[in-house]
Structure formats: structure tokens, C-alpha cells
Design goal:
Blueprint: E1 6-10, H1 13-24, E2 28-31, E3 35-38, E4 42-46, H2 47-54, E5 67-70, H3 74-84, E6 90-96, E7 102-107, E8 113-117
Parallel strand pairs: 1-4, 5-8
Antiparallel strand pairs: 2-3, 3-4, 6-7, 7-8
């Protein structure tokens, strides 16, 4: 068995597609009417579909998981993030851990937690 994809729930799939393309260079592999598979295995699913499957409310900013990306040029990434999405809500602005890795944490447009860090 292998892990195939990671799915996140989004309110506006087109805006989210643009967000993940702008910041991380992810492109659409498959667009299937409310389900969109991006490169690197990230799946965007329309909130209405997800609610229909689960019959439960979506809890944005639950902080129970995160998408983790690595970026060698963290300063350039932060500049791009702040230029393209100045309204982004940070969980942690740039910090450097005791082991030397620099990271930031912020929410995407729908409250999904993202961490971007320098390679370990």
C-alpha cells in the first residue's frame, strides 16, 4: 500500500488553484468538477462536496495538520508571499529552530495550515 494523495477542502477551487500555483508552482493534472488533482499529489476538493460526503461542518484553522514545503531561498519566498498575498494570516513569522532550519507557518485561503522551511 502507498499514500497516493493529500486532500484539502476549499471554498473556491479556482482561487485555491491559483494560490498553490503562484506560491508553489503546482499545476493541474486533473480537473473533475469540484475535485482537482495538482502536481505533487495535492488534491483540492470543493467544500460543498466534502460536506455532502461527511455530513459534518468544516473547521478551518483547526491546526491539526499542515502541508509542509521546503524552499532553499526562504527570504525570496517570503517576499513573494507578501507581495502576492499580503492578507495572508501568519501562525509563525520567520523563526530559526535550534537545529538551524528556518521556517514560516501561515494559513492558505481556507485556513489550511502551511509550513515552508529551508531544507534540513
Amino acid at each position: 500500500m502507498k499514500l497516493k494523495n493529500i486532500l484539502i477542502v476549499v471554498k473556491d477551487i479556482e482561487k485555491s488553484k491559483q494560490f498553490y500555483h503562484d506560491l508553489f508552482g503546482l499545476d493541474v493534472i486533473l480537473d473533475n468538477d469540484g475535485n482537482m488533482i495538482l502536481t505533487e499529489g495535492l488534491v483540492l476538493q470543493d467544500e460543498k462536496i466534502w460536506k455532502g460526503f461527511l455530513g459534518k461542518d468544516i473547521i478551518p484553522k483547526s491546526n491539526s495538520c499542515e502541508l509542509y514545503f521546503e524552499e532553499q531561498q526562504i527570504e525570496a519566498f517570503i517576499e513573494k508571499l507578501e507581495k502576492l498575498y499580503p492578507e495572508v494570516q501568519y501562525v509563525q513569522r520567520k523563526i530559526t529552530h535550534s537545529w538551524g532550519q528556518t521556517v514560516i507557518r501561515f494559513y492558505d485561503l481556507d485556513g489550511n495550515l502551511i509550513e515552508v522551511g529551508t531544507p534540513v
